[in-house]
Amino acid sequence: MLQVEALNTHYGRAHILQGMSLQVGSSEVRVLLGRNGAGKSTTMKSIIGLVRPTSGHIRFDGQEIAGEEPHRIARRGLGYVPEDRRVFADLTVMENLEVGKQPARGGMRPWTAERLFELFPNLGRMRDRPGGRMSGGEQQMLTIARTLMGNPRLVLLDEPSEGLAPVIVEQMAKAILALKGEGLTILLAEQNLHFAGGVADSATVVEKGRVVWSGTMAELRADEAARTQYLAV
Amino acid sequence: MDSLIPQLLTGLAGASSLFLVASGLTIIFGVTRIVNFSHGSLMMLGAYIGWSILTRLPRDPEWFVLGILLTVLATALIGVVLEVVVLRRVYRAPELFQLLATFGVVLVLQDVTLWIWGAVELPLPRPRWLRGFVEIAGNRFPFYDLILIFVGPVVLGLLWLLMNRTRWGTLVRAATLDREMVAALGVNQRTLFTSVFALGAGLAGLGGALSLPNASANLNIDLSIITDAFVVVVVGGLGSLPGAFLASLLIGILQAFGIVLVPKITLVLVFLVMAVVLVFRPNGLMGRPQAEAREATAAAPVIRPAPRELRILGLVALVLAAAAPLVAGEYYLTVLTDACVAVIFATSLHFMMGPGGMASFGHAAWFGIGAYAAGLLMQWLGAPMPVGLLAAPILAGIVAALFGWFVVRLSGVYLSMLTLAFAQIVWAISFQWVEVTGGDNGLLGLWPPEWARNPATFYWIALALAVSVALLLRRALYAPYGYALRAARDSAMRAQSIGLDVKRLRMVALVIAGAACGLAGAIFSYSKGGIFPTYISIPHSVEALLMVLLGGLQTVAGPIIGALVYTGLADILVRSTDLWRLVLGTVIVLLVVAFPEGIAGAARRLWLRGREA
Ligand SMILES: Nc1ncnc2c1ncn2[C@@H]1O[C@H](COP(=O)(O)OP(=O)(O)O)[C@@H](O)[C@H]1O
Ligand SMILES: [Mg+2]
C-alpha cells in the first residue's frame, strides 16, 4: 500500500534520511524502530510532505506522492499523527475534530465524533474543553481522533506512547489494536519495544537514516543480536 | 464637563472606523503571519471605489447601503488578486521580505490610484438623510457618527460568529495556531489564505467606504491609516479580534479627547500609550506569546568575511569613488554624496537588524534626530559644521539609549512596531512643534562652511565618513562584541546562560546604530541646506529597510551594495518617469519573489556555486 524507496531528505545541509526504504502492506501494522534521532519522525514528515525529500520515491497505492503538497497527500487517504501532538490549544475537542474532518471514502465506515468517543471515552466527557487544558494522554488521544476524522486508509503514528503514564500507554495500545481490527493500515514509530511488540505485525529498524533490519515482529523477538545491537534492550 | 459626552461619542465613532481596518489586518496577520503594509491602501481603494459607486447611485439610504456592499465586494476581489499575484509567492520568504513586498504594493497602488482618480481629493456630498443630528444629553450629535458607533460592535459580533460558529472560522483559528498541522490534516491552505485575505480586504474596503461621508477619498489615506491600524493591532495583540476592538476603543477615545485637551501632542500621546502597553504587556492587551508560526525554518547563515576577490573589488570601487570628482559633474557629485549618506543609513540599520536581530521600521528617526540636532545647534548657537557632525551622532546615540530601554524588552514584530511608533513620535514633534522645528517648512540655511562648500570637497568628506563608519561597524561585528551580539540574536536564552547580558548587548547595538544613522542625517542636511519632517517619514524608514534587504542581511557588503543600487535606481527612476512609484513598487515585488536572500546574498551564492563547480 505504501512503498518508500531510496529516500533522501536533508535539513539544510544535514543529510538525515540516507536512502530509506520500507513497505507497508494493506491492513498491516508496521513499526519503525530506532533510537532517538534515528530519523523516524523525518521519515514520517517526508511521507506526509511536511519536509520535501531531496530524492527517492514514495508511492501510495502505486502512485508517486513524493514532493506533493501535504494537503493533497492527506486527501489521498494518508493520515499523520505528529509526535509532539500539536493539538490546537485554543480550540475545543469538538473543534479540533472538526479541523480534521474530511469526506468519507468508499468502502470504509466513516468516522464520526461519536464513534471516536467510543474508542476514546475520555474525550467524550470533555467535548468543550480547549485542547490546551488537557493532560498529555488526553491530548494524544485527541490528536489521533482528529486524524481519524479525515477517514484515512493509512495512518502514520509518531511515538504515541511517548511521555505517557503506563496506564495510558495501556489504553493507547488497546485503541491501536481496535483500529487494527477495523482493517486500518498503520505505520508506527516507536522507541518502546514493549509497546510496539503488543501491536505491530512487522518491524523496520532504522539507524542514522538507514534501514538496518527488517522483518516480522516474531523474527525480531527471536533475533536477540539485532535487538541488543540496534535497540539496546 | 459639557463636552465630555459628545467627545466620547466622537471617540467611539472613530474607534469603529479604526476597528474595521484593524480587524482585517489582525485576521490576515493571524493566519498568514504577514504584516500587510498594503492594508491601508486597500482602505484607500475602498474610499475611491466607494466614491465612484456612491456618486453614481441615487441618494437614498437603501442605495447607500447597496453601494457600500458593492464596494466591500470590489475590495475583497482586489484582495484576492493581490493575494494570488503577490503574497502567495512570498509566504515562504522571511518576514521582512514579505513586509517589503507589501510595501511595494503600497507604492504600486499609490500610482494606480493617482492614475485612475487623479490627485484632487474627492469628497462625497452627504445626502440629506445623513446630514441630520440627534440630540443626546442636550448636545447635537451627528446622526452618521451614531451609525458608525453601531457598525463597529455589529461587525465584531458578525466576525465572532463567523470565527466561532462556522467550519471556515474553525479552520482559520486552527491555522492561526499551527498552519502546518492544518495542511497535514488535508486542508488546502491556499484557498484558506486567499479567503482570509478577501475578508480582510473587504473589511478595509468597508472602512474606506464608510469613512467617506466624514472625510474624502484622498491619496494620503494609505500611510496615515496603516500607522493607526498597526498601533491598534499591536496594542490589542497581534491576531486577536477582541484585542483589536478594545485597542480601537482605547485609541479612538484617546484621540478624541486628546484633540480637545492637548491638541499638539495627540500623536505623541497615542504612541506613548502603545509604548506603555507594550512594556507591561509585551504581546499586547489580549495577545499571546508568539508561538512562532510552526514551519521548518533554516537557521540564519553565519556572516563570514568576504572572499579575497571581493575585497579587492571593494578596494577598486573605493579608488574609483575617490577619483569620481575628477570626471563627474556637479549633479552626479550630489547623487554620489547621497549615495554616501545612504551607505551610512543602510549599514547602521543592518548593524542592529542583521547581527542584532532587531528589525527597525523607524530607522529614519535617528536620521532625523541627527539632522535636527545639527540644525538647531547652528540656529541657536551658530555651531559650525564640524561641531554639528560631531553632535549629531552623540545626540542620536543618547536618545537611542533612552528609547532603548523600551526596545530591548521586545522582540519580533512588536519590536518593529515600537520602532515605527517611535519614529512617528519624532516625526510628529518635528511636524507639530513649529516654533522650534519650523514645522512643515523645516529648518533652512544649513550650509557647509566656505572651505567645504565645493561639491567635490563635500563629497570627499561624505565619502571619508561613510567609509569610516562602514569599517568601524564591520570591525565591531568581528570583535568579540559582534559574536556575542549574534549569539544573543540566535538564542537569547542560551546566550544568557553562558553569561551574556542580552539586553545590554542589544542596547549597545541600538546606540551604535542610532549614532551612526544620526551622522548620516547631519551630512545629508548640510548637503541639502535644510531639514524637513519628511526625513523622518515612514517611506524614508522603509527606504533604509529596502536598501538593507536588497543587499541581503547575511553579508557585510550587503547593505553597501543595497544602498548604492537603490540610490542609483531611485535617481534614474525619478528622473525618467512620473510613474516611478509604480516601477519601483513592481521592482521591489519582483525582487522579493526572485531573490528572497537579497542581491548580495544571491550573488554570493552564485559566486560560491561557480567556484565549487
Ligand atoms: N527541523 C530540523 N532541523 C534540523 N535537523 C533536524 C530537524 N528535525 C530533526 N533534525 C535532526 O534529524 C535527525 C533525525 O531526527 P528525527 O527524525 O526527529 O529522529 P527520531 O524521530 O528518530 O528521533 C536528528 O539528528 C535531528 O537532530
Ligand atoms: Mg521522533
From TrEMBL, chain A:
Instruction: Establish whether keyword Nucleotide-binding is in the entry.
Output: yes
Respond yes or no to whether keyword Transport is given for this record. yes
Keywords assigned by UniProt? Amino-acid transport, ATP-binding, Nucleotide-binding, Transport
Q: Which domain of life is it from?
A: Bacteria
**TM spans (from-to):** none
Gene Ontology molecular functions: ATP binding; ATP hydrolysis activity; branched-chain amino acid transmembrane transporter activity
- Could you tell me which residue ranges the ABC transporter domain spans? 2-233
Query: Could you tell me which PANTHER family the record lists for this protein?
Result: ABC TRANSPORTER ATP-BINDING PROTEIN, HIGH-AFFINITY BRANCHED-CHAIN AMINO ACID TRANSPORT ATP-BINDING PROTEIN LIVF
Q: What lineage is on file? A: Bacteria, Pseudomonadati, Pseudomonadota, Alphaproteobacteria, Acetobacterales
Q: Which family is this sequence assigned to?
A: Belongs to the ABC transporter superfamily.
Q: Tell me the GO BP annotations in alphabetical order.
A: L-amino acid transport
Q: What name has this protein been given in UniProt?
A: Branched-chain amino acid transport system ATP-binding protein
TrEMBL record, chain B:
* Pfam families for this protein: BPD_transp_2 (PF02653)
Q: Does the keyword Zinc-finger apply?
A: no
Which Gene Ontology BP terms does the record give? amino acid transport
Give the transmembrane ranges: 34-51, 63-87, 99-120, 141-163, 192-213, 225-251, 257-280, 310-327, 387-408, 415-434, 458-484, 505-524, 544-567, 579-603
Task: Please give the InterPro entries that the UniProt record associates with this protein.
Answer: ABC_transp_permease, BCAA_transport_permease, LivM-like
User: What CDD domains does this protein's entry cite?
Assistant: TM_PBP1_LivH_like, TM_PBP1_LivM_like
Which GO-annotated molecular functions does the record name? branched-chain amino acid transmembrane transporter activity
Localized where?
Answer: Cell membrane
The cellular component terms of Gene Ontology attached to this UniProt record, alphabetical and capped at eight, are: plasma membrane
The protein's UniProt keywords, in alphabetical order, are: Amino-acid transport, Cell membrane, Membrane, Transmembrane, Transmembrane helix, Transport
* Keyword Cell membrane among UniProt keywords: yes
The record gives the membrane topology as: Multi-pass membrane protein
Q: Which family does it belong to?
A: Belongs to the binding-protein-dependent transport system permease family. LivHM subfamily.
Output this protein's name: Branched-chain amino acid transport system permease protein
The organism encoding this protein is Muricoccus roseus
